[in-house]
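Team,

Forwarding the record for the chain on the shared tracking sheet. I've put the sequence and predicted structure together so nobody has to dig through attachments.
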Amino acid sequence: MTEFVHLHVHSEYSLLDGLSSCKELAERAVELGNRALALTDHGVMYGAVQFYKACREAGIKPISGMEAYVAPRSHRDRDAKLDRKPYHLVLLAQNDTGYHNLMRLATIAQLEGFYYKPRVDKELLAEHSDGLIVLSGCGSSEVSRLLQNGQSDQARKVINWYRDVFPGRYYLELQEHDIPELTQVNRQLISLARELDLPLVATNDTHYTRREDASIHDVLLCIQTGKTVTEPKRMRMNGDSFYLKSGEEMAALFPEAPDALANTLRIAEMCQVELEFGHYHLPPFQVPEGYDAQSYLRHLCEEGLHRKYTPVTPRERERLDYELDIIHQMGF
């Protein structure tokens, strides 16, 4: 059996684009003998907790990630001609710092960068680069688009930027989906990897769990675009290859780059994120000198009590003590 880990996977939380539930993906990964599985939904982390729990329940390592939308200019720019087509980029959390940076990027993308898609930009990526592993992306990535347009020198500049910002954590991503342009890009990426001494990684752009799910996924795309399956001119995936493939299937796609498959295992080993449940995660609150959190809360409540009640009767005092006891007993 060829060992392989899927690092580019969309669930139903890639709304109207991914078909599978987190549970289905985790269970199928186990059937394939995978030791880990990543989730990289489009621009969001809605499914992160559910995915983490599903993988733990299935007995494999969850890898938290996101396929980010990167604005061609600033994430705040909103020009209809220049900013409607963001680049795709895969981000994986290597550790707890990376997981928090993923959450920050996803939040900023929604609150500040949303223009058709939730977007970040390179300045934000550099600011939140710690603990993140980066895959160069699919055919809609910046590097792939430049190579498809014959701009190999500019592609090198982009690659070098990512290599500098994510030292030792940037991989050139290979995908094969019977798309002629993508096949040509793969050849160039392999050449650039050898030239620039960068690692390759093989992925499958997974949007559904099994090959036979392709027709159902096609219906989902019709819902997304407001079309019917009988319309010839509509968005559709090229073939039925966007599923969780076996290691053997992936090895057959990239016989010239066995290191690209081996690096999926390497990345899986690098990613060590543990999420804790059943505990409160409260933000730190600075209290004045001479107080701890409980005594300062008591101090504030006492001030408020005397401000609102004159005089303070045993009834109000008893109620305040009761409320504070409940708060402290619950761990707040």
